[in-house]
Amino acid sequence: MKRKDQIPPASGKLGVLIPGLGGAVSTTFVAGVELVRKGLAAPVGSLTQLGTIRLGKRFEHRTPQIKDFIPLAGLDDLVFGGWDIYEANGYEAAMYARVLNRDHLEPIKGFLSGITPMRGVFDRRFVRNLDGTFVKKGSNLRDHVEALKEDIREFKRVHGADRCVMIWCGSTEAFLEPADFHRSPESFLEALDRNESRISPSMLYALAALESDIPFINGAPNLTVDIPAMVLMAREKNIPIAGKDFTTGQTLMKTILAPGMKARMLGLEGWYSTNILGHRDGLVLDDKDSFRTKEESKLSVLEHILQPSLYPNLYKNYYHKVTINYYPPRGDNKEGWDCIDIFGWLGYPMQIKVDFQCRDSILAAPLILDLVLFTELAQRIGMGGIQEWLSFYFKSPMHKEGLYPEHDLFIQLMKLKNTLRYLKGEEQITHFGLDYYMDLEED
Questions:
Q1: How far apart are CA 359 and CA 350, in angstroms?
Q2: Which of 124, 252, 345, 367 is most buried, judging by how many CB atoms fall within 10 Å of its CB?
Q3: Rounded to an integer, what is the distance from CA 396 to the centroid of its chain?
Q4: pLDDT profile of the chain (443 residues), mean per 10
Q5: What DSSP state is assigned to residue 412?
Q6: Measuring CA to CA, which residue among 167, 342, 349, 334 is closest to residue 251?
């Protein structure tokens, strides 16, 4: 792994390959990048574009912007492509999504209209509430992988992109339990050759990416790249992988509120969460098997933040409920309600109520940008395998087997920034602070 002066600069075009190119999140991301490039909007929500990083001691007052501190690819380097199961171009898809208004879309209509999807890989067994009309023919899994790899080669040739990152922005797939054939690259490839029915479309995209030496990021809660077969393949080929399920909306609130409760040793009796949303995401999650995949991701957050095994008197028996309701009129403007029953000194009960009326794609778009830029940096440096330092962006962060995932938003951010400091040879920030007040030098 290269550090400091050994980090090669970002040069040339960076291809951003998106399964689910026509979705609300994807079109909001692509349109947003173009608006920022044209100076028509600000990249609010993006750590890579607006965030700073403290270096050294507080009295040194060294706080550069992250994009000036670490050699990230520039926005002008990004070129976009991907796959979808519907044929609409970027402008048509963005208009259908109704996330961005015409004042934002019309100035970049020509750019968006020129972004057309490649035929997607689709299997209705994994997304029952959609009926793809623009899909690759046939059912042979290896043929699908080879077709995706050919798409990648053609995209790189047309756009002159010498490096790419693939990020899954497609639908949540039906719940899958890990199987024996997921344990190794060899067993997975054997299962692929016999058209194993438990290999999902997202796994085919991930395999095509890894076999094309392209990093893969999973933005959904699907069982995709977080299986030993993919992890081992990524490590052997020294390719970054990251995931899963973007932290937006209601779960973002949980990663902010739960660490605060735990820090002050306030107890939890129960946490009831419900959501209403429309659009394709809401329709997909109206299927019980796709919802179960999302539910598993959402439920895991509190367990790992609160650590009930360490604090049984505060968290051992709390009740946690998550529901999602499809409500077409709401579209992408998701609403999350949280009713939180807590207790404090001497066990006296209190309540917290949160009504987060959020715009899901507006929250997700800057995460995609950051993940693409940071993951490409990892590839350039030689940081293959699981990128746990990017846990900041995910509901169910990938982690090494035998470790628990880190869900605390503030610890995640410290991990991310300390990784950047390490890569540039800067001192780690621990917030120790006593050295400002005490003479700690040895006699």
A1: 29
A2: 367
A3: 9
A4: 76 97 97 98 98 96 97 98 97 95 97 98 91 91 98 98 96 92 97 96 98 97 95 97 93 94 97 87 77 73 93 95 89 90 98 94 97 98 97 94 91 97 94 81 53
A5: H
A6: 334
Q: CB 40: neighbour CB atoms within 10 A?
A: 13
Instruction: Locate 361 and state its tokens.
Output: 């794609």
Residue type, 438: M
Q: What is the pLDDT of residue 30?
A: 98
Are the beta carbons of 393 and 367 closer than 8 angstroms?
yes
CA–CA separation, 377 and 362 (whole Å): 24
C-alpha distance across the termini of the chain, in Å? 38
Positive or negative: CA dihedral 421, 422, 425, 428: positive
Tokens representing residue 371 in the block: 């993940």
CA distance 194 to 415: 41
**Helix 249-263 / helix 360-381 crossing angle, nearest 10 deg:** 80
Q: What is the DSSP letter of 62?
A: B
Angle of helix 141-159 versus helix 201-211 axis, rounded to 10: 50
Nearest one of 434, 415, 378, 404 to 1, comparing CA atoms: 378
Radius of gyration of the chain (CA): 22
Q: List, as one string, the DSSP characters of 357-372.
A: E--HHHHHHHHHHHHH
- Taking the C-alpha atoms of residue 217 and residue 187, their distance in angstroms, rounded to an integer, is 22
Sheet holding 319-326, edge to edge: 319-326, 267-277, 335-343, 349-357
pLDDT at 281: 74
Structure tokens given for 221: 């809660």
Q: What's the half-sphere exposure (Cβ side, CA atoms, 13 Å) at 378?
A: 29
The reported pLDDT for the residue numbered 443 is: 46
Distances (CA, A) of 99 to 112, 153, 237, 248, 356: 14, 32, 38, 15, 17
The two three-digit tokens of residue 329, written as one number: 């009129």
Residue 2: helix, strand or coil by DSSP? coil
Whether the Cβ atoms of residue 8 and residue 265 lie closer than 8 Å to each other: no
Helical (H) or strand (E) element with 341: strand 335-343
Positions of E strands within 367-413? 385-386
What is the set of domains in the chain, with CATH numbers? 4-246+361-423 (3.40.50.720), 249-357 (3.30.360.10)
Flag whether the pTM goes above 0.85.
yes
Name, in order, each residue with C-beta under 8 angstroms of 156's C-beta and a sequence gap of 6 or more: 15, 162, 164
Taking the CA atoms of residue 248, residue 240, residue 201 and residue 116 in that order, the dihedral angle to the nearest 10 degrees is: 80
